Amino acid sequence: MEWWNTTVDEVHRILSSMGIRDMIEIVIIAFLVYHILVWIQAGRAWQLLKGFIVIIAFLLIAYLGKMNTIWWIAKNIASFAITALIVVLQPEIRKALEELGKKNVLTSVIPFDNSKKEAAVFDDKTINEITKACVEMGKAKTGALIVIENKDSLADYERTGIDVDGIVTNQLLINIFEHNTPLHDGAVIVRGNRITSATCYLPLSDNMGLGKELGTRHRAGVGISEVSDSLTVIVSEETGRISIAMNGMLERISDAEALKERLRTLKDSGEEEDKGKHRWKGRNKDKK
Questions:
Q1: d(C-alpha 234, C-alpha 218), whole Å
Q2: pLDDT at 242
């Protein structure tokens, strides 16, 4: 029991010598380590980490076994290996930084003017027009890719297409995606109640869990949902089936009412956020 008492006394001494600054540092480090582990486990980095652990174990054996040649080679290629690891993990690192930016730490403290984004919430008429267009295109087996912007800006992807700036109607959507028309190839981006651009290029998802039968249109829909909080409606040209992509997930839509329900959910979430911003601005005005 003497070693136990000594250990307890040592821990008590360390804790008693810690100040507020040390506590804050521990919390920050724990927060960073936790989110790094979550990021690693959620993506391809988890598989790479397991391979990295195997290499470390092999090098440890080489060091303990005094295998000098292997240890010399490992030390000389270490700097190149770090650079190669950064290059391999570039998509995951970019996605992690984008996710960090989506936390909106600054906007939760500083009430920026978001009047432009508040006006981008679409209404029930737009929901009905998108649904009607998708149902009609599904019956005719006309492929379509409709990206509905949420909080994250899609301006970078709009620039890859052709400006439309028209009110969302089922006739306009059907005409855009009609076969052999100049605008049918690519995606349409919807902001609020307007179609901003057509023939837009979207990033393709590299998710290996997607079915092999899915084509470029579905992978583009999932890809844009992985890098933004948008909702994408996809109409298959081969089967006429309607799907939606959001948060990196692809979901089959059974009928028109199911599509309307998902669009209303996105609309309601945007309206709730806008109400929260109004309440926050109201409190700031009262304080002033």
A1: 7
A2: 93
User: Distance between CA 172 and CA 126 in Å, rounded?
Assistant: 12
pTM of the model: 0.60
Each domain of the chain, given as residue ranges in start order, spans 2-104, 120-277
What distance in Å separates the CA atoms of residue 64 and residue 239, rounded to the nearest whole number? 61
Estimate to the nearest angstrom the gap between the alpha carbon of 268 and the chain centroid.
20
Output the pLDDT for position 280.
45
Task: Identify which of 94, 80, 97, 93 has the alpha carbon closest to the alpha carbon of residue 45.
Answer: 93
pLDDT digits (tens, 9 = 90+) for 113-141: 444 444 457 888 999 999 999 999 999 99
Name the CATH superfamily for 120-277.
DNA integrity scanning protein, DisA, N-terminal domain (3.40.1700.10)
pLDDT, greater one: 244 or 10 = 244
The packing angle between helices 124-140 and 170-177, to 10°, is: 40
DSSP 146: E
Query: How far apart are the C-alpha atoms of 145 and 21, rounded to whole Å?
Result: 52
3-state helix, strand, coil in the chain (%, to 5): 60, 15, 25
Q: Which long-range contacts (CB under 8 A, 24 or more apart) does 245-248 make?
A: 245/218, 245/221, 248/205, 248/207, 248/222
Distance CA 11, CA 227 (A): 45
Secondary structure, 3-state, 167-226: ECCHHHHHHHHCCCCCCCCCEEEEECCEEEEEEECCCCCCCCCCCCCCCHHHHHHHHHHH
